[in-house]
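Quick one, T. Sequence first:
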Amino acid sequence: MAEYLPLYVQAFWLTLRIGLVGIFGSILIGLIVAMVVHFKVPVLKQIAGAYVELFRNTPLLIQLFFMYFALPRMGVPITAEACGMLGLALLGGAYMAESFRSGLEAVESIQFESALALGMTRAQLMRHVVLPQAVTLSIQSFVANIIFLLKETSVFSAISLMDLMFVAKDLIGLYYKTTECLVLLVIFYLIMILPVSILGTYVERRLRHGSFGPAGA
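Structure tokens:
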């Protein structure tokens, strides 16, 4: 296991980098899509709805295969790493959009009307009134989505990315040390995901005792 450790460390940083970029992209996409759907922007609402349904109802592996193998044939070259980031961002964006949308819908309409009556612009309304409450109300599903996306990085080996799963499968195939390789795989995924879970629980408890959200136990 000590001999394999450097390979896992290298694969861990690659997996983490792709995961973080993909998650950041998914947050941006999800927020934009949620606002488009919530405010019923003409035409864009239908496009956003189709996007959410497409990416929520197809496996990430199929999406990656399409981007990695089909896009270059259509004249759009893409590297395996960029494919992983884009695939994770698009998949996560569909889930994040639903989380943010539910948070936006939980904000009472009277608050929109009151803020506009006080002379706030729509940008100020979103920044100071709506988004803080929407994010607080959707924090639980938001954290769950991040954990889900980090676990979904395990399929990146299918497009020849030397992530954690790729290294584990490669070493098992070469040396037949299944137990040792899988133990290291589990340890590194715990190192990546467990802090997110703990931090998410802490933030959720703090926010539940704050100004917004349901009262915490």
